[in-house]
């Protein structure tokens, strides 16, 4: 099966926080779709500050599956959890899944990625995409993308959600990333794009298996502040480059 792949091994990174209700079932599904590919892989679950049994359940999954590693951080922070997983990933391409949002077809697309692309994202904004999220979350995504296009001149139509990035480009950029929480993966992909690399987008198909665990109304002010802060840092870095 792996003979058709352009990439022969992969890492999956999954941040987890207070996921005891769905962790075991979703983890087993991610393991199953990874096993079916019959190539070398690892799955890294990054628990961050859970107050329920998430860490204990994750450790049991790790004990039963040699391809699974569990990392743990003391405080809840989605972006830091992703960063920890990306920094510890050992394979040629790193696939970012959420415990409630993953896709076998996306994994196939990542492993057949053309060599001209540094990464792959699942965009909710493409005409062929199916976005089953609530209206307010769909509107928030459109506004978020518009702001990114205005402030960062990105060609990407969506930077949140599933993505796959070649590890070599992650290692080149990750130490420069200042964002945590909601913007870590957005900043990482923007930096890779700004370095001259090409990112491929494919349609996303989203059907939420449970309500979002984070309240969008609390995320909006935090995200806006983080975007403005990031634009300031990019501006400073641009000045430094011109002065060289």
Helix content: 40-55%
In CATH, what is the homologous superfamily? Spore Coat Polysaccharide Biosynthesis Protein SpsA, Chain A
- The structural class is alpha/beta
Strand content: 15-25%
CATH class: Alpha Beta
What is the overall silhouette?
Answer: globular
Order of strands across the main sheet: 3-2-1-4-7-5-8
The low-confidence runs, each spanning 5 or more residues with pLDDT under 50, are none
Tell me about the biggest sheet?
7 strands, mixed
The overall pLDDT average reads 92
Tally of discrete structural domains: 1
CATH architectural arrangement: Alpha-Beta Complex
SSE series: EHEHEHEHEEHEHHEEH
Radius of gyration: 17 Å
Measured between the Cα atoms of the first and last residue, the distance is 49 Å
The tally of strands reads 9
Number of helical elements:
8
CATH topology: Spore Coat Polysaccharide Biosynthesis Protein SpsA, Chain A
């Amino acid at each position: 099966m792996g003979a058709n792949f352009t990439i022969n091994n992969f890492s999956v990174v999954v941040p987890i926080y207070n996921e005891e209700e769905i962790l075991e079932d979703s983890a087993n599904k991610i393991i199953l779709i990874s096993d079916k590919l019959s190539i070398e892989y690892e799955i890294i679950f990054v628990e961050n500050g859970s107050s329920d049994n998430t860490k204990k359940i994750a450790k049991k999954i790790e004990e039963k599956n040699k391809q699974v590693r569990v990392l743990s951080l003391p405080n809840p922070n989605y972006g830091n959890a992703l960063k920890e997983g990306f920094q510890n990933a050992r394979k040629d391409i790193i696939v970012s899944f959420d415990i409630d949002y993953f896709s076998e077809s996306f994994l196939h697309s990542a492993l057949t990625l053309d060599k001209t692309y540094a990464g792959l994202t699942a965009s909710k904004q493409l005409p062929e995409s199916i976005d089953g999220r609530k209206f307010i979350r769909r509107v928030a995504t459109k506004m978020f993308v518009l702001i990114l296009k205005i402030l960062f001149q990105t060609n990407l139509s969506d930077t949140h959600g599933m993505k796959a990035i070649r590890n070599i480009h992650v290692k080149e950029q990750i130490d420069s990333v200042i964002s945590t929480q909601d913007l870590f993966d957005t900043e990482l992909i923007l930096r890779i794009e700004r370095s001259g690399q090409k990112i491929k987008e494919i349609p996303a198909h989203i059907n939420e298996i449970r309500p979002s665990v984070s309240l969008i109304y609390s995320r909006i002010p935090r995200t806006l502040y983080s975007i403005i802060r990031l634009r300031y840092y990019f501006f400073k870095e641009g000045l430094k480059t011109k002065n060289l």
